[in-house]
Write a structure and sequence with these properties.
- With 71 residues, the protein is an all-beta fold.
- The chain has strands at 2-3, 6-10, 14-22, 24-29, 32-37, 41-44, 49-54, 60-68.
- The chain contains no helices and eight strands.
- The strands form two sheets. A four-stranded antiparallel beta sheet has the order 1-8-3-6, with no helix packed on it. It has a four-stranded antiparallel beta sheet with strand order 2-7-4-5, with no helix packed on it.
């Protein structure tokens, strides 16, 4: 999706990999924050807190890839 401000939540259903399609922003996983730009990706494990903030002038576009739990 495209972020104009920010978003936060907790990963509970599946692990995820977030890929930056366009723009730049700050991503916090657990207590660690990192700056991300187009082409970067970050993995998020079950139970981790996750937040995004668009710090650029344009859109911060992300694609999430979910990795389901094993049965």
């Amino acid at each position: 999706g495209t972020l104009e401000g920010g978003q936060e939540g907790k990963i509970e259903e599946e692990e995820e990999v977030w890929y930056v399609m366009n723009g730049s922003g700050a991503v916090r996983v657990g207590g660690e924050q990192t700056e991300m730009k187009m082409g970067d990706a970050i993995a998020v494990r079950l139970g981790e807190e996750l937040s995004f903030a668009n710090e650029g002038k344009g859109d911060f576009e992300l694609m999430a890839i979910g990795i389901g739990k094993s049965p």
